[in-house]
């Protein structure tokens, strides 16, 4: 029975890959699949390494700050919150998002996602500083990505919020240009840049995550067979 189920899933993935754009086809499934789809596409667009599901210790609250995705290219760090929202979203006066008619046909309220991801970036910077990597001011940027095609809103969002339409239009950036996502991070010299970049990747690669075996299994299933 399990063989039939696994074969069916593989065939389903291959059919979706053949008939649909694999960069967008999975975002309406689960939130975890959306995270890995976003991370995978960012690596294809900008190179570098995307770290998914980090749980960074927050010294101020004695707890851990969950971070969806951290994209690291050559000296560039982008902290990304992935909101796989479907339905109609309105923004309240305090910045909260109210989503109606989503997956479960209910009304859900989310704290201001942009304020949340900026807090996550601040916690990440402190964590890196404690481990010997200090990023220059302004070198860490924040984004909120909404990759779900069923997302609807009448609101105009700040440039840090990437709606589904914006997400579709993102294009690969040549090495000779600086993208709107990337600002150039470590600036003092080539030797410092390379050593800081290597250390940064090592720190994030060994940072606490959700569950490494769970993340590994999701990566294998969602990214390698499609």
From TrEMBL:
Residue ranges occupied by any NERD domain in the UniProt entry: 30-147
InterPro entries given in the database record: NERD (IPR011528)
Organism: Arabidopsis suecica (Swedish thale-cress)
Lineage start: Eukaryota, Viridiplantae, Streptophyta, Embryophyta, Tracheophyta
Pfam families in alphabetical order: NERD
Protein name per Swiss-Prot or TrEMBL: Nuclease-related domain NERD
């Amino acid at each position: 029975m399990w063989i039939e189920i696994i074969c069916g899933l593989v065939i389903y993935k291959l059919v979706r890959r053949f008939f649909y754009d694999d960069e967008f086809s999975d975002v309406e499934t689960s939130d975890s699949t959306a995270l890995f789809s976003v991370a995978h596409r960012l690596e294809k667009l900008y190179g570098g390494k995307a770290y998914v599901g980090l749980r960074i210790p927050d010294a101020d609250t004695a707890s851990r700050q969950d971070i969806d995705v951290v994209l690291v290219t050559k000296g560039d760090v982008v902290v990304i919150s992935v909101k796989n929202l479907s339905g109609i979203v309105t923004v309240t006066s305090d910045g909260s998002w109210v989503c109606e008619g989503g997956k479960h046909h209910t009304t859900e309220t989310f704290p201001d996602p942009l304020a949340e991801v900026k807090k996550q970036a601040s916690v990440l910077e402190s964590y890196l500083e404690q481990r010997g990597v200090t990023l220059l001011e302004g070198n860490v940027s924040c984004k909120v990505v909404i990759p779900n095609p069923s997302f609807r809103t009448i609101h105009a969002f700040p440039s840090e919020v990437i709606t589904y339409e914006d997400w579709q239009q993102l294009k690969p950036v040549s090495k000779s240009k600086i993208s709107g996502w990337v600002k150039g991070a470590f600036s003092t010299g080539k030797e410092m840049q390379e050593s800081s970049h290597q250390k940064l990747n090592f720190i994030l690669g060994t940072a606490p995550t959700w569950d490494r075996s769970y993340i590994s299994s999701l990566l294998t299933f969602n990214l390698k067979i499609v």
